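Checklist before submission:
- one chain only
- standard amino acids only
- sequence pasted in full

Submission:
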Amino acid sequence: MPSHTSASSAHPATTYRDLLRNHEFAGLYASLILTVTASTLSGFALGTLVGRETRSPFLTAVSMYGAAFATVLGALTLMSVADGSRPRRSLVALQCLSLVGVAAQAVPGLPLAARFGLLLVPGFFQSLATGTRMGLIAEVVPASAYALARSLMNITSGGTAVLGYAVGAVLLRYMSPQGIFVAAAALTGAGSTVVAVTVREHSIRPARRPGLRRTWTTNVALFSHSGQRALLLNLWVPNGLIVGCEALFISYAPDQAGAFLAAGSAGMLLGDLVVGRLLTAEQRRRHAFALRLLLAIPYLLFALHPPAPLAAAAVFVAGAGFAATLPLQEQLLELTPDPVRGQVQGVESAGRMTWQGLGAALAGGAAQHLTPGTAITAVAAISVAVTVFSRPYVVRARAVAVETAGPADDPHL
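Returned file contents:
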């Protein structure tokens, strides 16, 4: 790893509090909170609006997670911007551009076709922003603290989603979805401002012009590597299918959807806290497979159409399984060359978001022909099958990482 800023090198961060003493990391962290809150509010508002107008489980699911489809466009075209020579400026500009798409949703009487088209705007630019933010984090914290920083970001995303869904459910009782879009746009703008005033420019990266050719060259190398390919697919597919289950909550139980979504996010927060903060790297790797199973198995309970409290408990438990992403992300970072860390992390995030959109579409399409509860069960069963049958490839990926890093690492998953 290259050297990092001196702000944290003298006293390596060992706790979340240590990380937050780094004002640049604190700025990126605050920006993430504002951005995730905005995304959660706008997605919940749009899903509610489309659900009311169409009564279609498929369109409701796609409207909540449809922005994820645009993330793959960012990964395939301009993700190399994440490793550009001026990442701070890029991040501010990208968040401002995504603000435009969120603000446009607040226009009254906008046709549904236009709303679905606008979903692509924040999805595209936020995918690039995520890669840029992750690349910046790798610059502002020492390499030894990167896993801790990523854990805190994951925990924060889950906790902020809990708050966003809860606040969104309350706000919808007092204001229209258009009003919530305005609030989301304001939060997105605030996130850009925080980055602009707290993060300095980092220009130590190669001064190569980002573009389509550079993006494709790195992506081809990424997917040609068997270990990285296996890790990416396991980060994407099982998670995306379970998000598809979540996308059916409004259709399954309209009055309880906010509580279910909040329960899942709360479980995610707890899982990331335990796995990221309390477990060692060795323990994370050993429990990774069990966590991937935990992500999906509780949703099989929906086949019995359980009462709302029991269903919410199952969703909470399953949410903890999302913590399986942390050991997989750590392994991916071990296999990633330093100059393309931002792009690879951006591709990982974009692929995960895209599969969330695909999972929502798959689950919504199934619910058109089956009951929402049956569709949730079927999609969860597919997630379990993918996790089980792909395990040997993840084990091989870990073996490649061990060969790269040396014999001191633990080869267990």
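Reviewer check: The two ends are 24 Å apart (CA to CA).
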